[in-house]
Write a structure and sequence with these properties.
- By secondary structure, the protein is an alpha/beta fold.
- The protein folds into two domains: 221 residues, Spore Coat Polysaccharide Biosynthesis Protein SpsA, Chain A (Alpha-Beta Complex), CATH 3.90.550; 60 residues.
- It contains eleven helices and seven strands.
- β1, α1 and β2 form a beta-alpha-beta unit.
- α10 runs antiparallel to α11.
- The radius of gyration is 22 Å and the shape is elongated.
Length: 287
Amino acid sequence: MIEGVSVVLPAYNEERAVGNVVLGLRKALETIGLPFEVLVVDDGSDDRTADVAADAGATIVSSPQNLGYGIALRRGIVAARYPYVLICDADGTYPPSAVEDLTSLAEHFDMVVAARTGRQFRGRGLRALARTGLRVFSSFVVGRRIPDVNSGYRIFHKSACVGYFGILSPGFSFTTGLTLAMISDARAVAFVPVDYARRIGSSKVRLVRDTFRIAQVLIQAMVRHNPVKLFAVLTAGMWILALAAVLVWGILGIGAMGILAGVTFLIGVQVFSVGLLAEAMRVRRDA
């Protein structure tokens, strides 16, 4: 069993849910018999989030204004006094009962992630499509299947997470970046399936904005950890375009297609060369 855990809950206007979340987590940890503390980072809320959380037994870390999810997590992680940190959203979506599975595995892994399951997680329409695309793309980036790259419910060693602060997003994509960085660095990361419930209160997530932000994090992670893979994809795209131009040139006899084929092929060669250079720089940096 780990020697103790600090629970960090970032919260922005979550007065309707945060009290029950704190009580549920405290009860689960008391049942296990694990030393713990619960820190609620009140991220500039203009409701009674801090008061409700304090009444439920949490220690409050206050921000003077809304600084964002990633910053709130950083503040809580830095303030944590135990070597292991468990983060959880304060909106009532995650089951406190999963704490036992997460903490029991924590001593054997660098990070244990609660992978969300169920209809509420999958969503519908564009949300479902975005989640599927994110899962496939993130798995491609690290070369391993990732069931849930940005779950907000996970446990890790505090020192391991702090070491990545320099490359992690200050916003919504903090957890995405942490997942990709740890797996890319060959750290042991486990995923535990958990039920995901409907949130209490209004969501702070904006589908289009946050999807683009996560896509940016994925591309940055690929450039940082496996640049050859990114540039190989770009090169393949260029060469497919060149092949299409050759086919059109051969069938229709349009001379401009021959020129386009040659240009795109050479651009593909140059792009791949840049990828090789980036990979050499990465290897030198990590040596």
